[in-house]
Amino acid sequence: MKRIHTFILLLLCTLASGQTINDVLRFSIEDVQGTARYQAMSGAFGALGGELSALSINPAGSAIFNNGQFSMTGSVHQKKNNALFNGSFASTNESNLEFNQVGGVWVFKNRSGSGWNKLAVAVNYDLVQNFDNDILIEGNSTVGIDQYFLNYAQGVPLGPLQVQEGEFIEDAYLDIGGSLGFGAQQAFLGFQSGFIDPVEFEDDNTAYFSNADYDQVNQNYVQSTNGFNSKLVMNFAGQYENFLSFGASLNFHSVLYERVTFLTEFGYDQESAIQSGTFDNFLRTQGSGFSFGLGAIAKLGDIVRLGASYQSPTWYQLTDDLSQQVNSDFPDKNPDITFIDFSIVNLFPRYTIKTPGRYTGSLAMVFGTSGLLSFDYGYQDMSNAELRPTSDPDFNSENQFISQQLGGVSTFRAGGEYRLKQLSLRGGYRFEQSPFKDNSAWGDLNGYSGGLGFSFGPNRLDFTYSQTRQDIPQSIFELGLSSASVERINSFYTLTYTLNF
To answer: Is 0.85 topped by the overall pTM?
Structure first.
């Protein structure tokens, strides 16, 4: 009973922060999902409106609807990751079915002769990101697990890293995290599992060495993620004199992100005291976010449309849970290290991620009932992203790093539609600049899309295929270990049903 009671008390202790630039990027970058028509034109709807998912680009778009509308969308999302790690290649494929959009708009026409001839209210749910993904990285590296623990251990006194007489190892693990923070906790894991040892077995020792000998070591790393970032848009817009439309939206996000990683390492030198090791982590992030949007669309003659919009920063309130397990075949390790497993949970304090605001300018040409062409340009200054509270010295340091590493991101979207009576043919292209000022490993995103729609009575069915490609670096761990180059390929097969009323 004493063991369970101690575990529960220490489970309530919070840890020092471990959030980084990667957490900011995860929630700042959004996919082009939504309705099939929206995807088919690569999201180039800033000057067009008249599509529920387009409210995320320009809130004035709901005033373009001529009547009420309801739509719902499902997609088959395929993800392929090609990882190149020190000359070794590995690939993963995953497919999942997702329900990524549902919404409706109600249009109220004013027949009293006022200049405001139309008002619209819309509610729309979109899946902004689907986190379901698998990455496999395997190959030889000159940097092993021991370096991860060494980087955290140097400068940490040995005294707190030892299990006291009568103390359970899992209690000591949670206690050091709550009192000294994440870095000291990782040093504790490295020492207790035998990857590192102190230069001197004195409580005030702060220097450590590795028990692993190798020129290169073989690593097998598996990362599996799942979860979502969804957005509920509450929108209101009005049209003045059939010329100018204004709109505003309140956006409510819901976030769940889970990531489990398994790292297996072997192939040390024959005389090494360690011949194999494992290090596994399970992270769970949950929370909510809020943002707002403002926009306008102007109709210049019968053909030209201009759009301008502002999407505010999104303020995410998040909490993290972290579980870890580590082991090696070092003969003098603490044999109780296996008691630290995924059932021992660290609770981090609540924190905030503020993503940068985004400005969008749009141009469209509408050729009556024959078709249209549309172009959007968006800009988002990623250097303004930050972790909060900024009074936290770790967050303040990471925010300075973010401002140095990240820069302005330009996004170009182009789309077109050609109508043949009841049939519509669509296509689009999307380009998104790398968020880094100088990081050749993180490439630009390129995307292509095509689709068709068929109208019958008040109903419409739309189908789209879209694909994006981007090269990104994938770190095996945040500190100490190597990175792989991953070509990320996302493909969507999307079907939307629309009812006009």
So the answer is: yes
190 close to 210: Cβ distance less than 8 angstroms: no
Closest among 275, 280, 139, 158 to 211, alpha carbons compared: 275
* The dihedral formed by the CA atoms of 32, 36, 40 and 46, expressed in degrees to the nearest 10: -60
Q: Buried (b) or exposed (e) across 97-130, using 16+ Cβ within 10 A?
A: ebebbbbbbbbeeeeeeeeebbbbebbbbbbbbb
Q: Contact at 8 Å (CB) between 242 and 14?
A: no
Closest CA to 332 of 230, 201, 494: 201
State the first-to-last Cα distance of the chain, in angstroms, to the nearest integer.
64
User: 274-327 pLDDT, tens per residue?
Assistant: 999 999 999 999 999 999 999 999 999 999 999 999 999 999 999 999 999 999
Q: Nearest-5° angle of CA 333, CA 336, CA 337? A: 65
CATH homologous superfamily for 2-475+486-500? Outer membrane protein transport protein (OMPP1/FadL/TodX) (2.40.160.60)
